[in-house]
Design brief:
By secondary structure, this protein is an alpha/beta fold. It is about 40% helix and about 25% strand. It has a single domain, classed as Rossmann fold. Strand 3, helix 3 and strand 4 form a beta-alpha-beta unit.
């Protein structure tokens, strides 16, 4: 079985390392980390992910700007994007996160089970 490729874009290096370890432990994902928001589009073109987990608040270029650049790119526009943010409550995580402007939002403090569920729903 081919592993699903997930690009994790977040400027918090310790958070991305932890997420990578947790998600790869499942054995079904290949996680690539990009810690510089302005490099996200180029990294996505090179890595060719099935899903992008994208931090909302980053220096230089925020997640909304990165998502707009992804949607403007004919090669990348159909890749699902899930925003990860500290601004989603535990109750909202438990119900699958929030949806705003057509994008799913999940909290950084989501449990591993909630994160995996959100990823699977968005890979379909």
């Amino acid at each position: 079985m081919d592993k699903k490729r997930i690009l994790l874009v977040d400027d918090d290096i310790s958070f991305t390392r932890m997420m990578k370890l947790n998600l790869e432990r499942s054995g079904i994902y290949d996680i690539h980390i990009e810690n510089v928001g302005s490099h996200a589009v180029a990294t996505a073109k090179e890595f060719k992910p099935n899903l992008i987990l994208l931090d909302v608040i980053m220096p230089e270029v925020d997640g909304g700007d990165v998502a707009a650049m992804l949607k403007d790119d004919p090669i990348l526009r159909d890749i699902p994007v899930v925003f990860i943010t500290a601004l989603v409550s535990g109750e909202e995580n438990a119900s699958g996160g929030l949806i705003r402007s057509g994008y799913r939002f999940i909290g950084k403090l989501a449990s591993e089970k909630e994160m995996l569920q959100c990823i699977e729903e968005n890979l379909r």
